[in-house]
Amino acid sequence: IKLSRPAVLNDKVQLACLPPRGEVLPNHDPCYVTGWGTLYTGGPMPDILQQALLPVVDYAHCSQPDWWGSTVKQSMVCAGGDIKAGCNGDSGGPLNCPAADGRWYVHGVASFVSAWGCNTLQKPTVFT
User: At the top level of its lineage, which domain of life is listed (predicted)?
Assistant: First the structure.
């Protein structure tokens, strides 16, 4: 990204790193999605950028037949899928995860949610 002027880093604006290639996040690791998608299935678009805590759902769970099954690949990251999730319009938004070194890492971008609704049980948001 080329900015017209330098970004001013502060408590609201910070840099994020890319994780080491092949890093796998553990189940329940806390990550955050941000986006401008609808507030709920069929709902309005927000006036301000939204953020939600989405714990990681590991591949072993996310790929079970009653979850995403074979739709999800090992290279994808699943997160949320309970009360909070990404929604329509959040695609392309980052999945930011804090690490022990104090840095934030972007572990993927929002790719899809369930066609049955944004907060469908056992259908976490999928990031690539």
Answer: Eukaryota
Q: What are phi and psi of 99, to 5 degrees?
A: -120, 165
Domain membership of residue 120 (yes or no) is yes
How many domains are there within the chain?
Answer: 1
In a domain, 2, yes or no: no
* End-to-end CA gap in the chain: 19
pTM exceeds 0.85, yes or no: yes
Q: How far is it, in rounded angstroms, from Cα 80 to Cα 31?
A: 9
Q: Which residues of 24-59 are buried (b: 16+ CB within 10 A; e: fewer)?
A: ebeeebebbbbbebbeebeeeeeeeebebebbbbeb
Q: Is 80 exposed, middle or buried (0-12, 13-18, 19+ CB in 10 A)?
A: buried
Range of the structural domain that residue 60 is part of? 29-127
Residues 16-35: tens digit of each pLDDT: 999 999 899 999 999 999 99
Is residue 7 in some structural domain?
no
